[in-house]
Structures are given as structure tokens and as C-alpha cells.
Amino acid sequence: MLNHEQVSVSNGSLHVVSCGSRDGPAVLFLHGWPESWLSFEKILRLAGQSMYALAIDLPGIGSSSMQDAPRAKSAMADCVHDLVQQIGLKRLTLVGQDVGGMVVFPYLSRYPGDLERAVIMDVVIPGIKPWEDVIRNPYIWHFAFHAVPNLPEFLVTGKERAYFDYFYSAIAAHPERITDETRDQYVKAYATPLALSTGFNWYRAFTQDARENREVVARSLPLETPLLYVRGDHEGDIQPYLAGFKEAGIREVHPAIIPDCGHFAADEQPEAVWEQIAAFIKAAEERG
Question: In sequence order, what are the beta bridge partners of 119?
């Protein structure tokens, strides 16, 4: 059974969905664009069988109410940290997919004491190799488009379902696994003008995100939180991403490639994704 609640944080509240026993280790899931907490529903139910599993709507999305939602990933990490402190999560693994993964990196550099482990899925981190190669790729045109002030809102408002469908079809190996009902719920999560702009604002902050992340790397401080990097096998070579994390100072980086999977791994292959995350957590717990 999934429990839904609103948790007050600075400048608003976050929609939190949870299941499992609070006595177990905690795992908190952060979704990407254009999705909501619902992208992790199947994984949440699997994780809740052995852990305290939680997923949120990111600040300003869906039922997470915030008038001035943060756009920089460091500020989003601060908001998630506030939630972690409010709930009192222990033995925490923080999991982020897409934009959620971009939030995990500043979180583990700012609040390493909160985390026992971190998982980043299906994303490049601004300012961390191979960031420059990715943003030069013409197939990643939407990074620049979404960063344009006002224009994406003007063109997408009223056409959210068709616009989001393009990405589900273009970068998923199995777009049919993102059902019509689920797609409707994702559209609903971005249906207000404020929520739609919040999603585009994440892209508008990439320049700031890259600068802040490079500053972290420039300090040459080791990042001790073990990291699992998850990527679908349809998304290309994982090695440049692993090398980028190591160069950024993360001491312990583990790869996980999900077979027969594109960008939306949690929707496309939830059982395989959870199997990899659960094994990562179990191995770390056994090492003590």
C-alpha cells in the first residue's frame, strides 16, 4: 500500500509517496523530465518489500506546491535535504533519474553525511564529462530550446501531451511501456503554467549548474559516497560517464547497464533497475 502525504519544507510542501517499514534502510527516488513520482511507482512497490521506500514530485511539479520553485540543482538538493531532515531518513540511498540525477550530484557533494549511497540514472551531469560532448550533440536540441525564455511555454501550452509523447517515442526503447494512463498523469503534473515553467527552468539553470559543479571538482576534495551509475543499453557507451565521475572526485563508482532499455529506465525495465539498485545496497550493507 502506498502512503501519500504533504511534507512542509522551505517555501512550500513536497508530495511524498512511501511504502515499507521505517525500521529498514531508506531509499528516496527523484524523477526526471517530463515525469513525476509515478515513474517510480513499480520500483517503489518492489523496494518497499525490504526497505523504507519514498518518491516525491520534484519541487513545483504535480502535487508539490511551491510558488518559487528552485531551478538550480544545488537549490533543489537543498530542498530535498530539508525533506530528509524533516522525515528523519536513515541509512539513506538517494536515487535520481534524468533531472533527478542532476540533483543527486550536488546533494552528495553538499550533504555527504546524509547518504550511505547514491544512484544516478540516464543522465549527464552539467559541467562533468562528457557534458560538453553531450550538449554539442544535435540530437540533444531540446536542452537549448527549453532554455529560451518564454518560447517553450508559448509553443507547448495546450499541446503538452503531443510534445511529451515525442520524447517518450524518440528516446525510449519501449515507449509502449509508458502507458496512455501514465502519460496522462505526467501531463497533469505539468498542466499549470507554473509547473510547465518549472520544468523548463531546470534547463535554464544548466549554465549555473555546470559552473557550480566545476567548482566542486576544482576543490579536488574526494567524494566518498559510493555511486551506482545506471544506463539503458540503447543509450550508448557508459564509459565516458564513469570516467567523468571518477575525474570529479567520486572515489567509488559502479556501473549498471540495463538490457533492452532506453532513457526511461524506471518505466521501461523497473524490475531490472531495482535488481541492480538492490544488489548495490546489499553489497554496501554487507561491507558495513
Answer: 95, 228
Q: Which helix (H) or strand (E) holds 228?
A: strand 227-232
Distance CA 83, CA 221 (A): 26
Cα four-point dihedral sign 57, 63, 66, 67: positive
pTM above 0.90, yes or no: yes
Domain span holding position 50 = 3-287
Alpha carbon distance 82, 90 (integer Å): 14
Task: Count the domains in the chain.
Answer: 1
- Cell numbers representing residue 238 in the block: 557508459
Give the whole-angstrom CA distance, residue 135 versus residue 124: 10
For Cα atoms 205, 267, 257, give the angle at the middle one, nearest 5 degrees: 85
Tell me: the pLDDT tens digits for 38-56? 999 999 999 999 999 999 9
Query: What CATH number has the domain bearing residue 195?
Result: 3.40.50.1820
Say if CB 267 and CB 39 are below 8 A apart: yes
